[in-house]
Amino acid sequence: MTGSKRRSTALLLCQDQHQNPSSIRTGKNVKLLKKLNKKSDGDHKKPNNPRKPRTALSLLIDSNVVLPMAKVYYQNKAGVSLKKGRITRDGILCDCCLNSFGLTAFETHAGSTNHRPAAFIMLDDGSGRSLSDCHKQVDGSSTNFKKVSKVQINGQYNSSCGSESPDHVCSVCGDGEELIVCQQCPAAFHLKCVGLKQVPKGLWFCPSCCCGICGNGVEGCCATCRQCDRKFHSICLKMKTKSSEYWKNCQVNWFCSQSCENIFSGLENLSGNPIPISVDLSWTLLRSNNGDSDHDDKKKLSAALDVMHECFETSKDFYTGRDVAKDVIFGRESKLKRVDFKGFYTVILEEKGDVATVATVRVHDGKVAELPLAATRFSHRRRGMCRMLVDELEKQLRELRVERLVLPAVPSALETWTKLGFSKMTDEDKSSLLLNYTLLHFQGTIMCQKLLKTTHSPC
Question: What average pLDDT does the chain have?
Answer without folding.
Answer: 80
